[in-house]
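In response to reviewer comment 3 from the previous cycle, which asked for concrete evidence that the modeling workflow produces usable outputs, we include below a single protein chain processed end to end. The sequence was submitted unchanged, and the resulting structure tokens are shown without manual editing.
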Amino acid sequence: MRRTARLLPGAALAVAVVGLGGVPAYAADAAALEVFPSSVIPGGQVSVNTTACGDTGTAAGDASAVGAGTFTLAPSSHKKNAIGQFRVPPSAQPGTYEIVATCAGDGKRVTGDLVVTLTSARAQVYPRGSVKTGVGGALGPDPVQTAAGIAALAVAAAGGTWLLHRRARGDGF
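The workflow returned the following structure tokens.
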């Protein structure tokens, strides 16, 4: 038991050391091409931005994979941020497309993914039809069942009233 207790702190230390070694490699990949919205319908407007181009902040964008051609990324009001826009052609087919930007100063290439769908995720969907709860409505799909339900409720109300009236008079049940 004591041997297990000594191995656990050593294993935790090893995991911590290995975990710290992987952080710089992940942080170096932070500058990418951000695509907004990441999912769009044909004919939609797309904005892209990146911090990969540094102080120059200009880049040449390529959206020819989706059929939109080339576009320019220019410096924005945010520090070290290049931004550009393009429109997805109405003839674009559903799928995932790679959008590319090449920095003007150093030729660095960054990519981002754009998903083209046939329906917009932002579209409001309104319910249609009746709710199948087992309780009919006044204008429900079956007026015969609705009438039978109303008749049953009326008989129950009349019977309850009659029983309460008898009890109040003292006749008993």
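Residues 49 and 83 are 4 Å apart (CA to CA). We consider this sufficient to address the reviewer's concern, and the full set will be provided in the supplementary archive.
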